[in-house]
From TrEMBL:
Native source species: Mangrovihabitans endophyticus
SMART domains: OMPdecase
Protein name: Orotidine 5'-phosphate decarboxylase
Enzyme Commission no: 4.1.1.23
GO terms for biological process, alphabetical: 'de novo' pyrimidine nucleobase biosynthetic process; 'de novo' UMP biosynthetic process
């Protein structure tokens, strides 16, 4: 069984590093001329998958926008996860789960176990009950060849109050998360399966990302203010492992599939120009 790190490396080599979010929020459904209901949700998600799943390395559906429609929305999510993977894209399910013990193990089973209809290639998780609390997700990922992306340095204005707080050991909370994931990825070839989430709009940071040896998801590019040119400043030597993530910048080009493909191609070209 190949690790997620291996599969991601192969996908990036074949398709480039671009990650595109699937974020069907109400305003975007309206912009596309769709109804804010399950019918609109399904048309939106299927259009994005049909346009991009055969050409980008990673698709990143945001679970909350499907969950708000209840069981029918979750059924749509299950369907697009399956369709995306069948078309060759890796699916990073953005769920940001974080809990302890059996609850974390249940989340891991829901999203990473091949027997689950919600099974994705990787998920996002929150480490703020302690990185050790995420062990069930790490174990499930190792068992099933999946990946886990841990929030480290996020772009929201409330984030630094926690992530930049200094621990008794002299490191920031964010650096502690970075260092623990780096240790877990040590020695992995060609790339570790545990990644970090680092916002593309955080600007200069004193944090060291050079030893992570895992994928670095950089959300917030495009309409949210992040630019490919700023990624080198943020990631330094870790730039080679960055997954640049676009959502509104690409999705705003819909509902025409050709428009979505062109927007994704422009984003990929902009990232390639800075060495990604």
């Amino acid at each position: 069984m190949e690790t997620f790190g291996t599969r991601l490396s192969e996908a990036v080599a074949a398709r480039g590093p671009l990650c595109v979010g699937i974020d069907p929020h109400a305003a975007l459904l309206t912009r596309w001329g769709l109804s804010d209901d399950v019918t609109g949700l399904e048309r939106f998600a299927r259009t994005v998958v049909d346009a991009l799943a055969d050409r980008v390395a990673v698709l990143k559906p945001q679970s909350a926008f499907f969950e708000r429609f209840g069981s029918r929305g979750i059924a749509v999510l299950e369907s697009i996860i399956r369709q995306s993977r069948e078309a060759g894209a890796l699916v990073l399910l953005d769920v940001k789960r974080g809990d302890i013990g059996s609850t974390m193990a249940a989340y891991a089973s829901a999203y990473l176990d091949p027997a689950s209809p919600l099974r994705a290639d990787a998920i996002t998780v929150s480490p703020y009950l302690g990185v050790g609390s995420l062990r069930p997700a790490f174990d499930a990922a190792a068992a099933h060849g999946a990946g886990v992306f841990v929030l480290a340095l996020t772009s929201n204005p409330e984030g630094p109050a926690v992530q930049h707080a200094v621990t008794s050991g002299g490191r920031t909370v964010g650096q502690t998360v970075i260092d623990e994931i780096s240790q877990l990825n040590a020695g992995a070839e060609p790339l570790g399966s545990l990644g970090l989430v680092v916002g593309a709009t955080i600007g200069e940071t004193c944090h060291d990302l050079s030893k992570v040896n895992g994928p670095l998801l950089a959300p917030g590019l495009g309409a949210q203010g992040g630019t490919p040119e700023k990624l080198r400043m943020i990631f330094g030597e870790g730039l080679r492992n960055v997954l640049p993530s676009y959502s509104r910048e690409v999705l705003g080009a819909g509902p025409d599939q050709a428009g979505l493909r062109s927007a994704a191609a422009r984003a990929a070209d902009a990232c390639r120009a800075v060495g990604l």
